Amino acid sequence: MVVAKHDARVCWITGNYTERTAQIERVKEHLGKHELFSFHEEDLLSFVLMQIEQFSCFSDQRLVILNGWPEFKGPKKAAAKKLISVLSTVTSDCVVILNNLKYDSKDPKDFKQPLNKIARVYHFADSFKFFDAVRLVSEIFEKKEKSIDRDDATLLVDSITSTPDFGDRVVDPDRLLLMIREKNAQHVSKSEIIRDIQSVPKLKREGLNFHTKMNKAVTKDGKQQFVYSYFAIEKAIAPASVYPRNRLLAIRQALGEAILKVRSTNSDSQAMTCFESVIMLICNVWGLDKSSFLRKEIRYI
Amino acid sequence: MEFTAKAKKLLDGLFPAIAIATKGVVSDCPTGFRMMLQATNKELKATAHGGRLASKMGIDNHNVEDLDYNCKTEGSITVNASHFADAINSFPHAEALKIKANKSELKISQISKTDEYQTMPVYDEVVKLPRMASDFDKEISIRRDVFLHGKTRVFFAVGDREDREQFFYWALRTNKDYARFIAGTGARFAVLDIKGKSFLQTQGKSEILFPKEQTDVIISILKRIEETDIVIKQAKRDKDIPDQIIVECGDIRMFLVAFDPTIKYINEDKLLDAKKDVCLTTHVEDWLYATKGMTATYTDEFKDQHTVYPSSLDIDLKAKDMVLKTNTPLKANRHIPIRKIVEKNGSVDVLTLKCIGPFLAEVPTYSAKEGEVEFLLNNSSEPVFIRHAEKSNTMQGLNESFISFFATLNPDGSS
Description:
heterodimer, A: alpha/beta, three-stranded antiparallel sheet, B: alpha+beta, nine-stranded antiparallel sheet, elongated
């Protein structure tokens, strides 16, 4: 759903990642040269509001993106009130994007209604119904001047459909849109993937610290060495068919965050909790939201 | 490796290497906190590399008075620099020490009492300097006192947010007989211009950016060197050699590496040179108590709950008066008389500026105790420029001008 106000300086965008990101890019493109301020959960609300209200020294346009509710000591209702109050007076040199900011309240007067009055609102779907998804696949292929018959589109959508306890089968829009992009790309067979990975050369570190150079490793008889054998790749590819892509990305993200946390803590129990969270994620017991504590404290890089 | 030297003099002589090894160190840098000592018959060399700042230096009986350096066995070892400094510091300053190392440990003992000693492990790793460039496209030679003064005046303004990396740097810009020091956060900047003869040599226009984290280490080393000039040069980019800035002063040569050479600093000239409609002259003395009053309303309780301290400045040109106000639970209402007004088009009578209070508190802090402070502005949404009062003749024979400018807040906003 899109509620457009041509003079609005605030955009409220919710829903699936792909369409949200595309919409943000459109705003950036529309603004042209601008100064970008991007805020997350760890930023303080008062600081964020000050940034919205502070004119720029250098740029004619500012773009402020809130990627989550900034930290606020107090009830969320009060935070929402402060935010709405500042957003109501956004100056003509500034555009504020509320990127997937959600507010659960029974009373729409707290956030939704006042925001609808001052913002351009873009609510993209969080999930598609099965047949809507099939239709979307056909439409996207058509736009790209490629053809897909209905059976193939149905098969594609079916592969990523989940069935809730009650109601219709639904499709995750991000997975669907990602998959369409992949299918549109050049088809690569498993054997071709294995061949490509096999050709990655093994590197040898020479020198220390800033003088370090990575050279191709060779055997005693001068033959070039490679990092992966056929069997190693075959084994490594197996999880790709077990985990969906977003799950693999989630595991990768959690691993990266856990490593940072483990390296920056002296507490064995905290380190063990980090490892446990990654294992739970791999075993499909936890979602990425459960491991969010990994990214809540200071990052060291 | 074995040598003898006097405790305090050894520590003083090795200060640059110890400082580089222990301060402003890049996290996870493998040579961080380590220092390599090389004892030779001629001198004692020390090498340190904190990831972004590196140096190799040599001390002997000529460049460190009363060092009494005597090398018994040549050799080199790597130790933890701060452990080494603490161990040396634990002996009476005038005491002669014997420093002896084998492959596993370094032993520091008093020559007069051999059973009084400190030991520490040694590392296998060698501390190496970055490969030095031979081709430099920027080179500035500047009087050491001017460089230290310039950095001191503007460094308070340097940025602190990681997502705005360019403001983690401060800039030295030079041209013939002219140097500009500039630092800022993106919302507030401090600019010091110094003009005069014979304090600077530069090849036309030049700009060098210094990273915030390593600045204090460089300055602490430069302060202890009794040399007139500093040479700063930046290497031409070359894929085989790390990007580097070299700071040379006397016998010390420091390498700044691992910075982002593609960072572009702001072009403030566009703002500074732009016409301003209104110029108000005030006295710095009038700001002192007014800003103290403003700061008094930012109580500890208020600071606990807020990260932003807003204030407003009501300017009445007809009445030649400014009122500095805060509206926290505690309130301030303080008058600052306007001594002189120069107005270009005469269309403005009253103006309210909303801004971050601490920016105004900097007026008396970074001005001379007496003198005129000029406010230059156009309207309530464009940056405000403050030309601070200057002490007369701070830098002999040179003219300096210190300006700060900051972005204002939306006057209709809720801050």
